[in-house]
Amino acid sequence: MRGLDYKWIEALDCIVQQGSFERAADELCISQSAVSQRLKQLEKFLAQPALVREHPPRPTPVGKKLLGLYRRVRILESELVPELTNEASSKPLRVSLATNADSLATWLLPSLTQLMREARVEINLTVDDEVRTLERLRRGEVAGAISLEEQPIAGCEADYLGRVDYLCVASPDFCQRYFPQGVNRDSLQRAPAVAFDQHDDMHERFVHQHFNLAKGSIIKHTVRSSEAFVKLALSGVAYCLIPRLQIEQELELGTLVNITPDFFLSHRIYWHHWQLESGLLKSISQAIIEHARAILPS
């Protein structure tokens, strides 16, 4: 039985990356008809579509699995071939990682700074919810993912990084306007809060647990940025759940106030990555794990 031809998957990957058959042909230095033919051969082998032909084209579920396999093989190949041939690769190693926005806004980039300065690497950071980052690793879209999930998926390891403590904070002016009699069920229903996106229910879980407020009973803005949380809190627009690590200076200066000192929310986060890593991938994992454990409380 004939196996997969990686030129077929290369064509699929290039179509998705470039956004069209024409640009994929230019990138691969072949004709557009050759790109189409490779994709047809792949889909004939699979007996099902690998690409949704719309603008821009996107992979089907099976196409995503193949792209994950292909990108993982390319990473391993880019590390192994120079070692076997004793020739340095002229192309940088491209590595995709999945992270939540709060880790990106606080400790993740410092963990990778030295490696990004010294190694020939292109880091592509994909930002997603802590729950959904692991799905990207499962589909093979990334080489590693920060997640709340403790259990690793097949073929991967999960290393504990530390604890992220979220404080419920607001500006002194906001506190005077909305919480003159303190934080309680009634004042929380009048005061605007902030959520990251439509999937972010962390704030609602927090007020439900500690103040018995039902889901949907609070006012909240939606901003897809951790930095925006801090700006909105500082400007007196809303109160927010923000990682303590991100606002230590603001708390010390008094520009933000912990409005629920008796309550905070904690997340235990993990670094999920492939087993049997070597070379640069192993260095990336080591840098992330060591830095996180030095910065985050255990």
Summarize, please.
By secondary structure, the chain is of the alpha/beta class.
**What ranges have pLDDT less than 50 throughout 5 or more consecutive residues?**
none
Q: In CATH terms, what is the fold-level topology of the largest domain? A: D-Maltodextrin-Binding Protein, domain 2
- What's the tally of helices? 13
Identify the CATH class of the largest domain. Alpha Beta
- Mass-distribution shape: elongated
* Helix percentage range: 40-55%
Keywords:
298 residues, alpha/beta, Arc Repressor Mutant, subunit A, two-stranded antiparallel ribbon, 20% strand
Explained architecture:
46% of the residues lie in helices and 20% in strands. With 298 residues, it is an alpha/beta fold. Strands 3, 4, 5, 6, 9, 10 and 11 form a seven-stranded mixed β-sheet that branches. It has a two-stranded antiparallel ribbon with strand order 1-2. Strands 7-8 form a two-stranded parallel sheet. Strand 1 and strand 2 form a beta hairpin. It is elongated, with a radius of gyration of 23 Å.
Topology at a glance:
Elements: H1 6-18, H2 21-28, H3 32-46, E1 51-52, E2 58-59, H4 61-85, E3 93-99, H5 101-105, H6 108-118, E4 121-127, H7 133-138, E5 144-147, E6 156-170, H8 172-178, H9 185-190, E7 192-195, H10 202-211, E8 219-222, H11 226-234, E9 240-243, H12 248-253, E10 257-258, E11 265-274, H13 279-295
Parallel strand pairs: 3-4, 3-5, 7-8
Antiparallel strand pairs: 1-2, 5-11, 6-9, 6-10, 6-11
Helix pairs in contact: 1-2, 1-3, 1-4, 2-3, 6-13
